[in-house]
Amino acid sequence: TSEGCTKLVIKGRSPIDKNTIHITFANQDGESNQLVEFTQSDVYVERVFELEKITGVQNVTFIFLPGSNFDFGSFRFER
Questions:
Q1: What are the angstrom distances between the C-alpha of 36 and each of 4, 28, 45, 54, 69?
Q2: Which residue has the higher pLDDT, 2 or 50?
Q3: CB-based contact 10:36 (threshold 8 Å)
Q4: pLDDT at 1
Q5: DSSP letter assigned to residue 67
Q6: Neighbouring-strand partners of residue 54
Q7: Which pLDDT score, from 0 to 100, does residue 2 have?
Q8: Who contacts 10 (Cβ-Cβ below 8 Å, separation ≥6)?
Q9: What is the per-residue pLDDT across 34-63, written as a single tens digit (0 to 9) for each?
Q10: H or E segment at 30?
Q11: Cα separations (Å) of 3 from 8, 16, 49, 63?
């Protein structure tokens, strides 16, 4: 929407200290990239990450670098 979102909530778990997740947002005007770091958890937990404001319809891609060890449960965007 035109109001956009400024938060990303990710539910996941990981046995390693830190997983860097690259998030790419793409639309007809171009592409932007943002990073979040999900820290270790033995059980599924929700973590909230602040984002630079994203508006409109976007194609979203999550990129995990080699060495990541992350179980992705779910995600949602919030204002």
A1: 18, 24, 15, 15, 15
A2: 50
A3: yes
A4: 62
A5: T
A6: 5
A7: 73
A8: 21, 36, 38, 46, 47, 49, 72, 73, 74, 75
A9: 999 999 999 999 999 999 999 999 999 999
A10: strand 30-54
A11: 15, 36, 18, 26
